[in-house]
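Students often ask why we bother predicting the structure of a whole assembly rather than each chain alone. The short answer is interfaces. A chain on its own may look different once its partners are present, and contacts between molecules only exist in the joint model. In this exercise we take three input lines together and write out one structure for the complete complex. Read the inputs first and try to guess which parts will touch.
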Amino acid sequence: MTKSLVENRLRELGIDLPEPPKAVGAYVPVIRTGNLIVTSGQLPWKKDRLAFSGKLGTDLTVEQGSEASRLCAINAIAQLKVAAGDLDRVRQIVRVEGYVHCGPGFREHPQVLNGASDLLNAVFGERGRHTRTALGIHEMPLDSPVQLIVWAEVE
Amino acid sequence: MTKSLVENRLRELGIDLPEPPKAVGAYVPVIRTGNLIVTSGQLPWKKDRLAFSGKLGTDLTVEQGSEASRLCAINAIAQLKVAAGDLDRVRQIVRVEGYVHCGPGFREHPQVLNGASDLLNAVFGERGRHTRTALGIHEMPLDSPVQLIVWAEVE
Amino acid sequence: MTKSLVENRLRELGIDLPEPPKAVGAYVPVIRTGNLIVTSGQLPWKKDRLAFSGKLGTDLTVEQGSEASRLCAINAIAQLKVAAGDLDRVRQIVRVEGYVHCGPGFREHPQVLNGASDLLNAVFGERGRHTRTALGIHEMPLDSPVQLIVWAEVE
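Now the answer. The structure tokens for the assembled complex follow.
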């Protein structure tokens, strides 16, 4: 049994950390520079397929979007683990960039992205508090409803 | 009277630094990591309401957009003050991410964002010189015409 | 003849590094903070004009978009040289933000941005491996098909 506090917390929340998703192009999924880790754009992968696709406000409900952004955050945590070695070395989630694939007039980006933010807060506690950017995107790669980038500070 | 050079400069420019706007979701408005400060997406709040809403090229003139981006920058400075303690500790504005809510065919993102850039240059002088990203967004949270993120280096 | 390994590699690839493009507003094209360099949004300039304009999926083929993103990356390398002094001081390309100006239903952002990623990998080898963000933009400044931001770590 792991001694990692963060992994125990994931277990309490019923979350199995997946294999970190591979890149979908000529790049890497996560990198460390100094004490900072930054992920590539994370999508709502469940194993080999996107759990959701389409646009918020057109094809998907806010609840589905929120679940998609939560999945992106889980995949981002899997990436952080690769780069940090141990999730307990994460001192702070620094920044979440949240891009929401949406149709005309959509305004509920914050509710969609709270799926990711709430999860990061639940998993990392005080260390999960992060800044956030919420933007609408008209056409997203792979028709994904959300793309999420996570920046973290590590020891 | 404050000894802060930057706050004196704000006063000369006739700018009252507002209370830093709160987050509109499960995140924090500003964070420090190492010598870097990064804000969440700043909107053109004046107290409890957005001073402008709608899309550039459809609902708002470039002048209104420029004024909105200037307001975003003032709010960002209020956030920097929280994180830095004293604005004189800002060594450099590093990066401005400028997102412009706009309608079909709009091309004047640079003019809109110069409202923010000119203000940062006026307030911080040589230390205000920053890199910039200018992007159009089709659907923005809260129907805000501009969203601005500011990165700064502090002592 | 330069001793720079990276510049020799550029020569082998048949690339003449251009003058680094100027900013198109009240900002600077590149900045260094600590060991990080970040560029402003790079466009596919060839001397004084954009080599491509318009939207992917509407006005331009994926091949043209890929060539445009490769040009953005070459301009970004010219900016990195200014900030680093010598390109051999680049320890790692950290992050590429790729924004693709595109029409309805476009999904080939990754292929377009591989033009930039492949070039960075070819020029910097192992040090060119980077994280990436790929997003669609409905209206881009100057009608540019691609905007690229590059983050690098230097010695």
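Check your guess against this: The interface with chain A takes residues 23-31, 33-34, 38-41, 97, 99, 137-143, 147, 149 of chain B (CB under 8 Å).
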